[in-house]
Specification:
487 residues, alpha+beta, five-stranded antiparallel β-sheet, rod-shaped
Length: 487
């Protein structure tokens, strides 16, 4: 190996090693001081890209958790307001039951209706003033909203809140498409007469559609049809109830007393020379345990109901002397639908008259009835604001309306509760995902202090050694002077 002083290869090599150890020591000190293994792309380009993606996910998950918590707060606000709505509806139901009692006078029912009216207003006020973040929740304007509960696009949980004001909650009702009274011996084209042949009912509800067969109405009772409808309610969401009620309106009965027979449940009740509707009602009620009928007089009208809901036949009707007019009519239950036929039958002219009763279909949601041979029926909403308990019949119907309204509100509350639970589970899942993502990012980006501290000590030693060796290498050319001294 040549010995020269122009080029000090040993010094160059030692300086290069010293520079390398210094750079590594600087990098180690940066990682230890910042806590990050990747401080720039030169440290780990791929790792930097992965860690940045994870940072976006973690940040998004944090916002999503806040969103879910806000969603829970909104659902709790709506559910709390609906709890008060249900409390009001329960009070209205109690008042309707109270008003339905026969001991109440007109003034009593008027006082009850006044409280009902105030409660109706309060339900609507709650719906109009319940807000969250300047959004109305219960007045129908909320509609359907999506909660963003993920770090990526379209990771949503939807929530729908319908209109729950007093005008929008209640029951959907429809009457059976036939009249409940006919006279056997008259032809089919007789005014007010319905032949009532066998038919089919196609019921289309919010659950689904089904068809039931019904026999000729003369050969059955409303309850038998009700049983068929209710047995299929799981297919349609529509239920039915029956009532065999009718009214008698009589003129001049005080001077032209009525004589007739009521036949029901295999028994006969004979009325001989009845001079007032109250006399007829008293005789029916005194025999109610035997014949299954009850009666009361409202506004000069006799209302007769069959507790057993059996068909009722009126026979041998007459007045003495002749001249009294006694009309049999389908009962008006203060509902938005009346019996399809409004024509009354004069019981002193037609014999016999059979009261088959009527059927009422109901559901919490809209539905329709398609009946072959009869007029189709579309259910109508009877809202809580339509309730009027100023009559006994109105009070009875109010109970049904309130029951449907409570069911409607409870259905929304159930959905709100389900959404709250879902959001809570979502928050738990997001928290776990954020935790795991943070751990993954940490393993990629964060400094391993045990490893890096060891690396720092190593580079410090190498730097110290490099400095000493470089100093010695720089002095190597001085040895050439000894060769020159010999000349």
């Amino acid at each position: 190996m040549a010995f020269s002083i122009a080029t000090n290869n040993a010094a160059i090599t030692s300086q290069s090693n010293l520079r390398e150890s210094s750079l590594k020591l600087d990098s180690s000190l940066q990682k230890l001081s910042s806590g990050l293994r990747i401080n720039s792309s030169k440290d780990d380009a791929a790792g930097l890209q992965i860690s940045n993606r994870l940072s976006s996910v973690i940040s998004g998950l944090s916002v999503a958790i806040r969103n879910a918590n806000d969603g829970i707060s909104m659902a709790q606000t709506a559910e709390g307001a609906l709890q008060e709505t249900v409390t009001i509806l329960q009070r209205m139901r109690n008042l309707a039951i109270q008003s339905a009692n026969g001991t109440n006078a007109v003034s009593d029912r008027k006082a009850i209706q006044e409280e009902i009216s105030e409660l109706q207003k309060e339900i609507t006020r709650i719906a109009e003033t319940t807000t969250f973040g300047e959004q109305n929740l219960l007045d129908g304007s909320f509609g359907s909203k999506d909660f963003q509960v993920g770090a990526a696009a379209n990771e949503i949980i939807p929530l729908t809140i319908p209109d729950l004001s007093g005008d929008s909650i209640g029951g959907n009702f429809a009457a059976a498409p036939w009249w409940g009274a006919d006279r056997h011996s008259f032809p089919q084209n007789f005014v007010g007469y319905t032949a009532l042949p066998p038919s089919q009912l196609q019921i289309a509800g919010h659950v689904g559609t089904t068809t039931i067969n019904i026999p000729a109405i003369r050969n059955t009772t409303p309850d038998s049809i009700v049983q068929q409808v209710n047995q299929a309610s799981h297919l349609t969401g529509v239920t039915a109830s029956s009532y065999t009620d009718f009214v008698i309106e009589a003129d001049n009965i005080d001077t032209h007393p009525l004589t007739f027979d009521l036949n029901t449940n295999g028994q006969t009740l004979h009325f001989n020379q009845a001079y007032s509707l109250h006399d007829i009602a008293n005789q029916i009620n005194q025999s109610s345990t035997d014949i299954g009928l009850r009666a009361n007089v409202e506004n000069d009208t006799l209302i007769i109901r069959s507790e057993a809901k059996d068909n009722i036949t009126i026979t041998d009707a007459s007045s003495n002397p002749t001249g009294s007019t006694a009309l049999v009519k389908a009962i008006d239950r203060d509902e938005p639908f009346n019996s399809v036929q409004e024509t009354a039958l004069n019981m002193t002219l037609f014999d016999p008259i059979v009261i088959h009763g009527n059927i009422q279909f109901s559901s919490d949601s809209s539905f329709s009835i398609d009946s072959a041979g009869y007029n189709d029926q579309q259910a109508s909403l009877v809202s809580v604001n339509d309730i009027d308990v100023s009559t006994q019949n109105g009070a009875q119907f109010a109970i049904q309306i309130v029951d449907s309204a409570i069911s409607q509100v409870d259905s929304v509350r159930a959905e709100l509760g389900a959404v709250q639970n879902r959001l809570q589970h979502t928050i738990s899942n997001l928290a776990v995902t954020a935790e795991n993502s943070s751990a993954s990012r940490s393993r990629i980006r964060d400094t391993d202090y045990a490893k890096e501290a060891s690396q720092q000590v190593k580079q410090q030693i190498l730097q110290q050694a490099g400095t000493a060796i470089t100093l010695q290498a720089n002095r190597l050319p001085e040895s050439a002077l000894s060769l020159l001294e010999g000349n």
